[in-house]
């Protein structure tokens, strides 16, 4: 096959095409990417087929220049590429590096389901989780290190059970944010997580009774590959929420060895004796509280987070 550029020049001269078109197409055929594509497929294309594809070649060069110059393009977020289709040249569009990163982030966010959780968890990352260590190893960084240890172990081996973390400490220390950072990191590694603000979830479950949606809503939570129960112990529980909602969820997750995280202002002992043992009716039921805490202790390891309140004053 003769030289592509010379052949096209002869073709344009032979057909006495107008000067503007010749100038326009000459620049297209001199484009390094176009020249390389034509050379790669020189045995698969005739001059006539190349001519019939001239509009596509022009589209490719024009769109790529627009993309390089930051101008509006035909397909925002996508870059043109040349392909051969049935002996004709076509333009295909593939995501740019920025678009691929954006699509990856969108896909990751879909792996994090939340129920009445604050917006801050959507963008929570370990990079933004500032250290605030103390000498006893109970600060934010110690908790973050244990969180990363869980992540590394879980990603390396998802077949076996891994205990989650029971994060407890004073208000504003960053417990909820850390849960969000863990969830987002796991999402980037194709792990689906559900975060539940438990006091709000309890209210939602009560409302679901009238709509016959209790089982459906509870299934979505209890079967999640990773479950994070935020702010447990913040509000007093009725016996029904404690036994038929929380108890059923934790029993299912214990039996199926599904990693579960918690955050609370109470230590495990405090949660058992000062919160779960007493219902909103004033009943004191230490045996039921103990049974529930056995499930919590099986599912998660207690981690204290100490330090100042970091919320804006």
Features:
313 residues, alpha/beta, Rossmann fold, 2 domains, six-stranded parallel β-sheet, two-stranded antiparallel sheet, 15% strand, elongated, Primosomal protein DnaI, DnaI_N, P-loop_NTPase, DnaA_dom
What is this structure, in a nutshell?
Strand 1 and strand 2 (88-95) form a beta hairpin. The chain folds into 2 domains: 4-95, no CATH class; 101-305, Rossmann fold, CATH 3.40.50.
Number of separate structural domains? 2
Q: Count of helices?
A: 13
> Widest sheet: strand order?
3-5-6-7-4-8
Strand percentage lies at 15-25%
Task: Give a structural overview.
- The protein has helices at 4-14, 19-29, 32-40, 47-52, 54-68, 97-110, 140-156, 175-188, 198-208, 214-222, 239-255, 268-276, 286-299, and strands at residues 78-85, 88-95, 112-115, 164-169, 193-197, 226-230, 260-264, 300-305.
- It has 313 residues and is of the alpha/beta class.
- It contains 13 helices and 8 strands.
- The mean pLDDT is 84.
- The protein is elongated, with a radius of gyration of 30 Å.
- It folds into 2 domains: 4-95, no CATH class; 101-305, P-loop containing nucleotide triphosphate hydrolases (Rossmann fold).
Question: What is the element layout, followed by pairings?
Answer:
Layout (H helix, E strand, L loop, with lengths): L3 H11 L4 H11 L2 H9 L6 H6 L1 H15 L9 E8 L2 E8 L1 H14 L1 E4 L24 H17 L7 E6 L5 H14 L4 E5 H11 L5 H9 L3 E5 L8 H17 L4 E5 L3 H9 L9 H14 E6 L8
Parallel strand pairs: 3-5, 4-7, 4-8, 5-6, 6-7
Antiparallel strand pairs: 1-2
């Amino acid at each position: 096959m003769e030289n592509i550029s010379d052949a096209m020049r002869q073709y344009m001269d032979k057909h006495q095409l107008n000067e503007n078109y010749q100038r326009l197409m000459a620049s297209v055929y001199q484009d390094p990417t176009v020249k390389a594509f034509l050379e790669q497929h020189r045995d698969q294309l005739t001059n006539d087929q190349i001519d019939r594809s001239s509009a596509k070649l022009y589209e490719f060069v024009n769109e790529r220049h627009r993309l390089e110059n930051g101008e509006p393009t035909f397909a925002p977020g996508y870059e043109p590429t040349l392909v051969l289709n049935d002996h004709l040249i076509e333009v295909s569009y593939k995501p740019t590096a920025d678009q691929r990163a954006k699509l990856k982030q969108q896909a990751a966010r879909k792996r994090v389901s939340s129920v009445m959780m604050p917006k801050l968890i959507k963008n929570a990352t370990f990079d933004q989780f500032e250290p605030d260590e103390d000498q006893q190893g109970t600060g934010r960084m110690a908790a973050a290190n244990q969180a990363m240890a869980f992540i590394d172990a879980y990603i390396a081996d998802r077949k076996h059970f891994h205990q989650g973390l029971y994060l407890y400490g004073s208000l504003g220390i960053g417990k909820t944010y850390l849960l969000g950072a863990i969830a987002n990191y796991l999402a980037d590694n194709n792990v689906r997580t559900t975060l539940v603000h438990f006091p709000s979830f309890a209210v939602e479950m009560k409302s679901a009774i009238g709509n016959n949606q209790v089982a459906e809503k509870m299934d979505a939570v209890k079967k999640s590959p990773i479950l994070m129960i935020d702010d447990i112990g913040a509000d007093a529980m009725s016996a029904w929420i404690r036994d038929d909602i929380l108890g059923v969820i934790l029993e299912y997750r214990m039996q199926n060895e599904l990693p579960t995280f918690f955050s609370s202002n109470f230590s495990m002992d405090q949660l058992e004796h000062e919160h779960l043992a007493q219902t909103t009716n004033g009943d004191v039921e230490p045996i039921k509280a103990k049974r529930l805490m056995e499930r919590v202790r099986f599912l998660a390891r207690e981690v204290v987070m100490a330090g100042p309140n970091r919320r804006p004053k």
